[in-house]
């Protein structure tokens, strides 16, 4: 009986007229902004989907057996494009992925796993989770953002609920700041309306024109109201090289003092990174109220990598090619990377970014 009613609602409107899922998370400014007619249509479609959700909830809370409940959920997810059906957080998997595949980044491992885990466990968080990754190129910032998406939706950038913005692609002109702000606000709001659990990744923040990102201020705090959506369930990740000098300097001082890099604590760097990014004219966060109003949950430092970490990256690359036994290639790659400072050669100047190319060279 329940199945018949549920399917009846679907064929009455949602299934026949529901818009298709997007297969890409890449935003295309202007073209992606819906017209007024599309907005009305989407509102109607949302109301119809809401009816499906209500019916499903009623049957879910009834005295159906566990098997029947599972069947009802399967049917609901078959006919619905709700992101709740794709949202399958695997916090343990994220923790293991960070531990196994992220090298030399104890701060990122601890902060990201705990922050994401605590946030996901809250049914109604009081504000979004906002993470800002900082460090030199090749230290794992983009890798970690992909891990977060993959362990929330099973895929990373291919999920329609994980959205990546690249300034040189989406906001290339410095004289179009006001236009970009309007488009970005409408685009984020539209995706939040579609999926409260959206993940937004802003890469290369050091290349974004100052002022654009401040349009997100209402979405990052606890007070903004978005119709039919708990926007506080969203996750925002900002990625930048801004602040790398401070991070590298402290890491070098720690090493020269004979201490372990694992002795570096988040509180040793977070305030300094925040101030450096805020005052950096080449940062998208320059004089940003997002920082001034303390809307970023955590500034996450990514430390520079030494030769040991570089060789681990090379070994992982080789294993992915079925060549785990080639220790000669691992040593050759470790010796071919440029290290800084030149007199001590402590840290890779490019992290692990050039490792695939160097493996190709020696394999």
TrEMBL record:
<dbReference type="InterPro" id="IPR027417">
    <property type="entry name" value="P-loop_NTPase"/>
</dbReference>
<dbReference type="InterPro" id="IPR010448">
    <property type="entry name" value="Torsin"/>
</dbReference>
<dbReference type="InterPro" id="IPR017378">
    <property type="entry name" value="Torsin_1/2"/>
</dbReference>
<feature type="domain" description="Torsin-1A C-terminal">
    <location>
        <begin position="308"/>
        <end position="360"/>
    </location>
</feature>
<keyword id="KW-0067">ATP-binding</keyword>
<dbReference type="InterPro" id="IPR001270">
    <property type="entry name" value="ClpA/B"/>
</dbReference>
<dbReference type="GO" id="GO:0005788">
    <property type="term" value="C:endoplasmic reticulum lumen"/>
</dbReference>
<protein>
    <recommendedName>
        <fullName>Torsin-2A</fullName>
    </recommendedName>
</protein>
<keyword id="KW-0732">Signal</keyword>
<dbReference type="GO" id="GO:0005524">
    <property type="term" value="F:ATP binding"/>
</dbReference>
<dbReference type="GO" id="GO:0016887">
    <property type="term" value="F:ATP hydrolysis activity"/>
</dbReference>
<dbReference type="InterPro" id="IPR049337">
    <property type="entry name" value="TOR1A_C"/>
</dbReference>
<keyword id="KW-0256">Endoplasmic reticulum</keyword>
<feature type="binding site">
    <location>
        <begin position="135"/>
        <end position="142"/>
    </location>
    <ligand>
        <name>ATP</name>
    </ligand>
</feature>
<dbReference type="Pfam" id="PF06309">
    <property type="entry name" value="Torsin"/>
</dbReference>
<keyword id="KW-0547">Nucleotide-binding</keyword>
<keyword id="KW-0325">Glycoprotein</keyword>
<dbReference type="Pfam" id="PF21376">
    <property type="entry name" value="TOR1A_C"/>
</dbReference>
<comment type="similarity">
    <text>Belongs to the ClpA/ClpB family. Torsin subfamily.</text>
</comment>
<dbReference type="GO" id="GO:0005635">
    <property type="term" value="C:nuclear envelope"/>
</dbReference>
């Amino acid at each position: 009986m329940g199945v018949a009613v549920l399917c009846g609602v679907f064929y009455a409107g949602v299934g026949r007229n529901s818009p298709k899922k997007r297969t890409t998370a890449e935003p295309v400014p202007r073209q992606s902004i819906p017209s007024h007619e599309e907005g009305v249509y989407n509102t109607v479609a949302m109301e119809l989907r809401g009816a499906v959700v209500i019916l499903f909830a009623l049957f879910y809370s009834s005295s159906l057996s566990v098997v029947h409940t599972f069947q009802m959920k399967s049917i609901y997810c078959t006919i619905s494009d709700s992101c709740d059906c794709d949202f399958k957080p695997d916090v343990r998997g994220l923790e293991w992925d960070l531990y196994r595949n992220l090298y030399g980044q104890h701060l990122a491992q601890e902060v990201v796993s705990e922050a994401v885990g605590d946030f996901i466990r809250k049914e109604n968080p009081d504000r979004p989770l906002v993470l800002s990754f900082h460090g030199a190129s090749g230290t794992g910032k983009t890798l970690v953002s992909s891990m977060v998406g993959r362990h929330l939706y099973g895929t990373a950038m291919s999920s329609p609920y994980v959205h990546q913005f690249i300034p040189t692609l989406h906001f290339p002109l410095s004289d179009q700041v006001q236009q970009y702000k309007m488009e970005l606000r409408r685009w984020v709001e539209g995706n939040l309306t579609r999926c409260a659990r959206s993940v937004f990744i802003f890469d290369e923040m050091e290349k974004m024109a100052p002022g654009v990102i401040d349009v997100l201020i209402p979405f990052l705090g606890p007070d903004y109201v978005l119709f039919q959506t708990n926007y506080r369930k969203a996750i925002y990740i900002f990625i930048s090289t801004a602040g790398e000098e401070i991070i590298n300097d402290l890491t070098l001082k720690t090493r020269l003092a004979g201490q372990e890099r694992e002795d570096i604590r988040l509180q040793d760097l977070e305030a300094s990174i925040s101030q450096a990014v805020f005052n950096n004219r080449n940062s998208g966060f320059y004089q940003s109220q997002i920082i001034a109003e303390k809307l970023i949950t955590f500034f996450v430092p990514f430390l520079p990598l030494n030769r040991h970490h570089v060789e681990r990256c090379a070994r992982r690359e080789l294993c992915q090619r079925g060549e785990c036994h080639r220790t000669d290639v691992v040593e050759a790659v470790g010796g071919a990377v440029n290290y800084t400072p030149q007199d001590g050669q402590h840290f890779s100047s490019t992290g692990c970014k050039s490792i695939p190319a160097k493996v190709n060279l020696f394999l």
